[in-house]
């Protein structure tokens, strides 16, 4: 059984732990932005990042694989600060937001499928039609606009005449 003082003594220098958290967060954020919106499901990309990174950060301290709970706490704090900083910067600087935050993209316009977006997101026509049916739409011609939202969901605006 480890001594109490060993359990809270950091295994690595605190600046190194913080830097590791920041670098991993930014690298994963960039990679997930490249993957695309559809893969994130109902959560935003930053939500997924936070859950995964914090789970990994605290796993050593929880499972006893690490001698230090402090490392997990410092790493978690670094990840959360990084997340808040990215959100604050995206709020303040629209150009930065365009890089790190996904935006709604038109999937259907005036009944016509955006095949380019579908290829980019690896969406088949059958998948799009399935999502339309969930909105009570049986034919893309009934759709004025449909957007692939940042959380991966599809929002549908019907034609006034349909």
Automatic annotation (TrEMBL):
Pfam families membership: DUF421
UniProt xrefs under InterPro entries: DUF421, UPF0702_alpha/beta_dom_sf
YetF C-terminal domain span: 93-161
Compartment annotation: Cell membrane
Keyword Cytoplasm appears in the UniProt entry: no
Keyword Cell membrane: yes
Membrane topology: Multi-pass membrane protein
Keywords for this protein: Cell membrane, Membrane, Transmembrane, Transmembrane helix
Main location: membrane
Family: Belongs to the UPF0702 family.
Protein name: DUF421 domain-containing protein
Phylogenetic placement of the source organism: Bacteria, Bacillati, Actinomycetota, Actinomycetes, Kitasatosporales
């Amino acid at each position: 059984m480890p001594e109490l003082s060993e359990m809270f003594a950091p295994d690595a220098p605190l600046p190194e732990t913080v830097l590791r958290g920041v670098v991993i967060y930014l690298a994963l954020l960039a990679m997930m932005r490249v993957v695309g919106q559809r893969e994130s499901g109902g959560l935003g990309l930053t939500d997924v990042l936070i859950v995964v990174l914090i789970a990994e950060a605290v796993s050593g301290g929880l499972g006893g694989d690490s001698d230090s709970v402090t490392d997990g706490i410092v790493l978690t704090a670094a990840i959360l600060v990084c997340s808040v900083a990215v959100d604050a910067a995206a709020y303040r600087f629209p150009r930065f937001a365009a890089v790190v935050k996904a935006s709604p993209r038109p999937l259907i316009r005036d009944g016509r499928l955006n095949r380019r977006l579908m290829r980019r997101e690896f969406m088949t026509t059958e998948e799009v039609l399935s999502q339309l049916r969930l909105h009570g739409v049986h034919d893309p011609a009934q759709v004025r606009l449909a957007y692939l939202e940042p959380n991966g969901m599809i929002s549908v605006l019907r034609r006034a005449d349909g």
